[in-house]
Design a protein that fits this description.
- The structure is a single chain.
- This protein has helices at residues 2-33, 40-45, 74-82, 84-96, 100-103, 105-123, and strands at 47-49, 53-56, 62-71, 129-139.
- With 140 residues, it is α+β, with helices and mostly antiparallel strands.
- The chain folds into two domains: 1-36; 40-139, Band 7 domain (Tetrahydropterin Synthase, Chain A), CATH 3.30.479.
Length: 140
Protein backbone atom coordinates (compact mmCIF):
# COMPACT_ATOMS: atom_id res chain seq x y z
CA UNK A 1 0.00 0.00 0.00
CA UNK A 2 2.88 2.41 0.83
CA UNK A 3 4.51 1.81 -2.56
CA UNK A 4 1.21 2.46 -4.30
CA UNK A 5 0.89 5.91 -2.59
CA UNK A 6 4.44 6.81 -3.60
CA UNK A 7 3.76 5.73 -7.18
CA UNK A 8 0.52 7.77 -7.33
CA UNK A 9 2.25 10.85 -5.85
CA UNK A 10 5.14 10.45 -8.31
CA UNK A 11 2.71 10.22 -11.26
CA UNK A 12 0.85 13.34 -10.05
CA UNK A 13 4.10 15.31 -9.61
CA UNK A 14 5.28 14.33 -13.09
CA UNK A 15 1.89 15.22 -14.59
CA UNK A 16 1.95 18.62 -12.85
CA UNK A 17 5.52 19.27 -14.05
CA UNK A 18 4.59 18.22 -17.60
CA UNK A 19 1.50 20.43 -17.56
CA UNK A 20 3.54 23.39 -16.31
CA UNK A 21 6.16 22.85 -19.00
CA UNK A 22 3.46 22.59 -21.68
CA UNK A 23 1.83 25.80 -20.45
CA UNK A 24 5.18 27.66 -20.31
CA UNK A 25 6.25 26.55 -23.78
CA UNK A 26 2.80 27.36 -25.17
CA UNK A 27 3.03 30.91 -23.78
CA UNK A 28 6.52 31.34 -25.22
CA UNK A 29 5.36 30.23 -28.67
CA UNK A 30 2.44 32.69 -28.57
CA UNK A 31 4.77 35.54 -27.52
CA UNK A 32 7.13 34.89 -30.42
CA UNK A 33 4.22 35.16 -32.87
CA UNK A 34 3.72 38.81 -31.90
CA UNK A 35 7.25 39.71 -32.97
CA UNK A 36 6.83 38.79 -36.62
CA UNK A 37 8.68 40.87 -39.16
CA UNK A 38 6.60 43.46 -41.00
CA UNK A 39 5.98 42.95 -44.69
CA UNK A 40 7.40 45.25 -47.35
CA UNK A 41 3.98 46.85 -47.80
CA UNK A 42 3.70 47.55 -44.06
CA UNK A 43 7.18 49.11 -44.03
CA UNK A 44 6.34 51.30 -47.02
CA UNK A 45 3.13 52.47 -45.35
CA UNK A 46 5.08 53.61 -42.29
CA UNK A 47 8.19 55.14 -43.85
CA UNK A 48 9.13 58.28 -45.71
CA UNK A 49 11.99 59.08 -48.05
CA UNK A 50 13.54 62.50 -47.74
CA UNK A 51 14.57 64.60 -50.68
CA UNK A 52 18.22 64.56 -51.68
CA UNK A 53 19.83 67.20 -49.48
CA UNK A 54 23.13 68.94 -50.13
CA UNK A 55 24.80 70.72 -47.21
CA UNK A 56 28.19 71.93 -46.07
CA UNK A 57 30.09 69.83 -43.56
CA UNK A 58 32.09 70.99 -40.57
CA UNK A 59 35.19 70.50 -42.75
CA UNK A 60 35.66 72.39 -46.04
CA UNK A 61 33.60 69.75 -47.86
CA UNK A 62 29.96 69.18 -48.58
CA UNK A 63 27.70 66.16 -48.33
CA UNK A 64 24.84 64.92 -50.45
CA UNK A 65 22.47 62.71 -48.47
CA UNK A 66 19.06 61.09 -48.60
CA UNK A 67 17.36 59.12 -45.83
CA UNK A 68 14.55 56.63 -45.32
CA UNK A 69 12.80 57.20 -42.00
CA UNK A 70 10.73 54.34 -40.58
CA UNK A 71 8.05 55.33 -38.10
CA UNK A 72 5.96 53.18 -35.78
CA UNK A 73 2.56 53.91 -37.37
CA UNK A 74 0.86 55.45 -40.37
CA UNK A 75 -0.33 58.30 -38.15
CA UNK A 76 3.30 59.06 -37.25
CA UNK A 77 4.14 59.01 -40.97
CA UNK A 78 1.46 61.62 -41.62
CA UNK A 79 2.90 63.79 -38.85
CA UNK A 80 6.43 63.48 -40.25
CA UNK A 81 5.18 64.44 -43.71
CA UNK A 82 3.54 67.55 -42.25
CA UNK A 83 6.77 68.38 -40.43
CA UNK A 84 8.93 68.22 -43.58
CA UNK A 85 10.65 71.59 -42.92
CA UNK A 86 11.59 70.50 -39.40
CA UNK A 87 12.81 67.12 -40.67
CA UNK A 88 14.95 68.83 -43.33
CA UNK A 89 16.36 71.26 -40.77
CA UNK A 90 17.25 68.38 -38.44
CA UNK A 91 19.00 66.57 -41.28
CA UNK A 92 20.96 69.63 -42.35
CA UNK A 93 22.07 70.53 -38.83
CA UNK A 94 23.05 66.93 -38.07
CA UNK A 95 25.04 66.39 -41.26
CA UNK A 96 26.66 69.83 -41.00
CA UNK A 97 28.02 68.88 -37.58
CA UNK A 98 30.25 66.16 -39.07
CA UNK A 99 33.60 66.42 -40.81
CA UNK A 100 34.43 64.36 -43.88
CA UNK A 101 36.69 62.12 -41.80
CA UNK A 102 33.92 61.42 -39.25
CA UNK A 103 31.51 60.30 -41.97
CA UNK A 104 33.88 57.89 -43.72
CA UNK A 105 33.09 54.19 -43.26
CA UNK A 106 30.27 52.16 -41.77
CA UNK A 107 30.84 53.55 -38.28
CA UNK A 108 30.46 57.12 -39.50
CA UNK A 109 27.21 56.34 -41.29
CA UNK A 110 25.86 54.44 -38.26
CA UNK A 111 26.70 57.40 -36.02
CA UNK A 112 24.97 59.78 -38.41
CA UNK A 113 21.86 57.57 -38.49
CA UNK A 114 21.72 57.33 -34.68
CA UNK A 115 22.18 61.08 -34.15
CA UNK A 116 19.52 61.89 -36.70
CA UNK A 117 17.15 59.36 -35.15
CA UNK A 118 17.57 61.15 -31.80
CA UNK A 119 16.89 64.58 -33.30
CA UNK A 120 13.82 63.35 -35.15
CA UNK A 121 12.51 61.67 -32.00
CA UNK A 122 12.57 65.10 -30.30
CA UNK A 123 10.48 66.57 -33.14
CA UNK A 124 7.83 63.83 -33.28
CA UNK A 125 4.82 64.14 -30.99
CA UNK A 126 2.42 61.48 -32.29
CA UNK A 127 4.66 58.55 -33.03
CA UNK A 128 8.12 57.15 -32.64
CA UNK A 129 11.03 56.94 -35.06
CA UNK A 130 11.94 53.26 -35.38
CA UNK A 131 15.03 53.65 -37.56
CA UNK A 132 16.81 55.99 -39.95
CA UNK A 133 18.65 54.62 -42.97
CA UNK A 134 21.05 56.47 -45.25
CA UNK A 135 19.89 55.69 -48.80
CA UNK A 136 22.18 58.08 -50.65
CA UNK A 137 25.51 59.36 -49.45
CA UNK A 138 28.28 61.34 -51.14
CA UNK A 139 30.96 63.51 -49.61
CA UNK A 140 32.99 65.87 -51.76
Amino acid sequence: MGKMKILIILVLVLAAAGGGAFFFLGQEAEGSGEEKQPTAEELAAMSIDTDIITTNLASPNFGIVQFNILLDSEKAKEEAEKRTPEVRAAIISTVAGFTKEELVGADGIATLEEQLKGKLAEIMQTGKVERVLVTEFKVQ
